[in-house]
C-alpha cells in the first residue's frame, strides 16, 4: 500500500492540485475578511462564534468544489492514459482505489487545516473576544474533515467510474448548491442530503432578533445522530463505490 | 512442450451475444503465438479474460499450468507483461517516471528501467514528457512497461496499430528478438495476416468469437499447397471414377479439385476418361494463397 500511495504522489507531479486548494482557501480568506470588516468591537466579542457559524455554511459550496476538482485531477490521468488496464494486472483494484482515496484525503485535510489556520490567524489579528477556542476549532476540523471525506469518497467513485470528468464535476457543483440551499430546510430534511452535513454538524447556532435586528451566536449541542448517519453514508459510498470499481471490466 | 496458456471453453457474453465462445487456446512455451482475426472477432476480449480484466461468462483459464481465479490472479500475472489495445501512460510525466511507477508497483529492481528503455531504444528520450512522444514511441514505452519485470509471458494486443511502416518493422523486429534473447513466450494479436505470417510460429484464428484454426504457421502454409482443378464434359461420372481409384476430390464451381499428382498418374486419368468418352476440357494448377485460407476460415476480407 505504501508503494501505491508513493506512486499516487508521483502521478500528481506538475498537476498543481495544491494550487487549486490554495486558491479556494484564498477565496475563503477573502470572504472571511469581507464578512468581518463591517463588524464593530462589540460584534468581535463573538468573533470566534461568528467564524464557526459562517465557515461551515461557506463550506457547503467550497469543499464540494475542492473535492470534485481534487478527485477529478487524480483520476483523470488514469482515464486519459488508459492506465487502469495495466495497473490492474500489477496491483489489486481495491488497492488502487484505497491509495487514491488516502492521497486525496490529504488534500481535503490540508483544506480543512487551512481554514482553521485562517480562523486562528484572523481571530488573533483582530483580537476576537476570549481565548482561542481550541476545543471548538478541533471539533470544527474533525467534523469538516468527516463531511469532506464523505463527499470526496463520492466524488472519487464517480471520477473513477466515468471517463468523462464533466460528470463528476457537474455532480460536485450541483451537490454543493443543493447543500447550500438545504440550509433553508428543516434539519430532518438536511440529513438526507450529503452536502448539507456541514450545517448539520455545526457547533454554533444563531438567533436573529427581528425587532432589534441584532444577531446573537450561541454554542449548540453536537448532533451525534447526524454524525452517525454521516458515518453510515461514508461506509455505503466507500463500500459500494469500491465494489463497483473492482467489479467493472476495463 | 508445456503450454503457458490453456483455456477451456472460454466464453464471454455481453447482453445475449457471445463475443467469445468456447475458445480453447493453447499457447506453447517459447512460441510466438499469433492471434489473428478481423476487427471485433473477440481477440481483445479473450486476452483481457486471460489477464483477468474481463470476467469470463464460462470456461477455465490456466496460466503456467495454474488455474486462474480471482484469488491467485495477480500472483499468476507476476510473470506476465501486457500491452492491451493501446499503451498505458501518464502523459504529464517523462518516460522514465512512467516506468518508475510500474517498476515500483511491480517491485522489480530500479535498474530494469534503464535496461528496458535500451531494449526499446527510448533511452535517449527518457526525460521527455510522454505527451510529446510520437505514437510509435508511446507504443515502445508500452512495450517497455510490459518488459519491466522480464516476464516469461508477454501478451501484446495489436502492438503495431497506428504505426507507420517503419514503426511496424521496428516493433516486429523487437518482438521477434524477445523469445531468443529472454526466453519469453509471446502472444501477439493482430488483424493483419501479413504481420502474423512474418512473426508467429503458431497461429490461432478467431472468427465471431470462435476459434476456427489453431496450429503451427507451417501447417497453415501447407493448406496453401498446390492442387489441380479439372473440368470434364461429365463431372458426375468423373467423380465416381476418381473415387474408385482412391483420388480425393471436391467440387468448386464447375471444377473438380484434386491433389497434386505425378504427370504419369494424370496422364493415366486423362487416358481412361478419354476411353470412356468423357472429354477432359481443362486441367489447371492452382494454389491457395494464405489470404484465401484466411478468408475461408474467417469469412472476412483479409486486411493487408
From TrEMBL, chain A:
Which CDD domains does this entry report, sorted A to Z? Answer: ABC-2_lan_permease-like
Q: Which UniProt keywords apply?
A: Membrane, Transmembrane, Transmembrane helix
Q: Does the keyword Zinc-finger apply?
A: no
What highest taxon heads this organism's lineage?
Bacteria
Residue ranges spanning the membrane: these are 17-36, 48-71, 106-128, 134-154, 166-185, 224-245
Q: What taxonomic classification does the UniProt entry list for its organism?
A: Bacteria, Bacillati, Bacillota, Clostridia, Eubacteriales
The protein's name in its UniProt record: ABC transporter permease
Q: Does the keyword Metal-binding apply?
A: no
From TrEMBL, chain B:
User: What are the recorded GO MF terms, alphabetically?
Assistant: ATP binding; ATP hydrolysis activity
PANTHER family from the UniProt entry: ABC TRANSPORTER, ATP-BINDING PROTEIN (PTHR43335)
Q: What's this protein's name?
A: ATP-binding cassette domain-containing protein
* Domain ABC transporter intervals: 5-233
Membership in a protein family? Belongs to the ABC transporter superfamily.
Q: Which PROSITE patterns match?
A: ABC_TRANSPORTER_1 (PS00211), ABC_TRANSPORTER_2 (PS50893)
Sorted alphabetically, the keyword list is: ATP-binding, Nucleotide-binding, Transport
Amino acid at each position: 500500500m505504501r508503494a501505491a500511495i508513493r506512486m499516487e504522489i508521483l502521478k500528481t507531479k506538475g498537476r498543481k492540485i495544491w494550487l487549486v486548494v490554495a486558491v479556494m482557501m484564498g477565496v475563503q480568506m477573502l470572504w472571511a475578511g469581507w464578512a468581518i470588516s463591517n463588524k464593530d468591537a462589540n460584534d468581535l466579542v463573538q468573533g470566534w462564534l461568528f467564524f464557526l457559524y459562517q465557515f461551515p455554511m461557506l463550506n457547503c459550496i467550497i469543499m464540494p468544489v475542492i473535492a470534485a476538482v481534487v478527485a477529478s485531477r487524480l483520476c483523470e490521468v488514469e482515464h486519459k492514459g488508459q492506465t487502469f488496464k495495466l495497473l490492474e494486472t500489477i496491483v489489486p483494484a481495491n488497492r488502487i482505489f484505497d491509495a487514491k482515496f488516502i492521497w486525496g484525503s490529504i488534500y481535503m485535510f490540508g483544506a480543512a487545516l487551512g481554514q482553521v489556520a485562517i480562523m486562528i490567524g484572523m481571530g488573533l489579528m483582530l483580537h476576537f473576544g476570549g481565548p482561542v477556542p481550541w476545543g471548538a476549532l478541533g471539533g470544527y476540523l474533525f467534523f469538516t474533515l468527516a463531511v469532506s471525506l464523505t463527499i470526496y469518497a463520492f466524488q472519487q467513485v464517480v471520477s473513477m467510474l466515468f471517463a468523462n470528468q464533466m460528470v463528476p464535476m457537474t455532480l460536485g457543483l450541483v451537490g454543493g448548491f443543493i447543500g447550500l440551499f438545504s440550509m433553508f430546510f428543516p434539519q430532518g430534511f438536511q440529513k438526507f442530503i450529503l452536502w448539507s452535513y456541514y450545517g448539520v454538524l455545526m457547533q454554533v447556532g444563531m438567533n436573529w432578533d427581528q425587532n432589534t435586528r441584532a444577531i446573537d451566536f450561541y454554542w449548540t449541542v453536537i448532533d451525534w445522530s447526524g454524525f452517525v448517519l454521516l458515518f453510515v453514508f461514508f461506509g455505503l459510498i466507500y463500500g459500494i463505490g469500491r465494489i463497483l470499481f473492482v467489479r467493472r471490466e476495463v | 512442450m508445456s503450454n503457458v496458456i490453456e483455456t477451456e471453453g472460454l466464453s464471454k457474453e455481453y447482453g445475449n451475444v457471445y463475443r467469445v465462445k468456447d475458445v480453447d487456446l493453447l499457447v506453447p512455451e517459447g512460441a510466438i503465438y499469433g492471434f489473428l482475426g478481423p476487427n471485433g472477432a473477440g481477440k481483445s476480449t479473450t486476452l483481457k479474460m486471460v489477464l483477468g480484466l474481463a470476467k469470463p461468462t464460462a470456461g477455465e483459464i490456466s496460466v503456467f499450468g495454474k488455474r486462474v481465479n480471482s484469488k491467485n490472479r495477480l500472483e499468476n500475472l507476476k510473470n506476465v507483461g501486457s500491452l492491451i489495445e493501446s499503451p498505458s501512460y501518464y502523459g504529464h510525466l517523462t518516460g522514465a517516471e512512467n516506468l518508475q511507477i510500474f517498476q515500483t508497483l511491480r517491485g522489480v529492481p530500479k535498474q530494469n528501467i534503464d535496461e528496458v528503455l535500451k531494449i526499446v531504444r527510448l533511452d535517449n528520450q527518457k526525460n521527455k514528457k510522454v505527451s510529446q512522444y510520437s505514437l510509435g514511441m508511446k507504443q515502445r514505452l508500452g512495450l517497455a512497461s510490459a518488459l519491466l519485470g522480464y516476464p516469461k509471458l508477454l501478451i501484446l494486443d495489436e502492438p503495431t496499430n497506428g504505426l507507420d511502416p517503419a514503426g511496424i518493422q521496428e516493433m516486429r523486429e523487437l518482438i521477434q528478438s524477445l523469445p531468443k534473447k529472454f526466453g519469453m513466450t509471446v502472444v501477439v494479436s493482430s488483424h493483419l495476416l501479413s504481420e502474423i505470417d512474418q512473426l508467429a510460429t503458431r497461429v490461432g484464428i478467431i472468427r465471431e468469437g470462435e476459434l476456427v484454426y489453431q496450429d503451427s504457421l507451417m501447417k497453415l502454409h501447407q493448406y496453401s499447397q498446390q492442387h489441380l482443378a479439372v473440368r470434364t464434359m461429365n463431372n458426375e461420372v468423373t467423380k465416381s471414377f476418381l473415387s474408385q481409384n482412391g483420388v480425393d476430390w471436391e467440387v468448386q464451381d464447375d471444377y473438380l479439385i484434386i491433389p497434386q499428382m505425378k504427370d504419369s498418374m494424370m496422364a493415366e486419368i486423362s487416358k481412361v476418361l478419354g476411353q470412356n468418352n468423357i472429354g477432359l476440357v481443362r486441367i489447371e494448377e492452382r494454389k491457395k494463397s494464405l489470404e484465401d485460407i484466411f478468408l475461408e476460415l474467417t469469412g472476412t476480407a483479409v486486411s493487408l
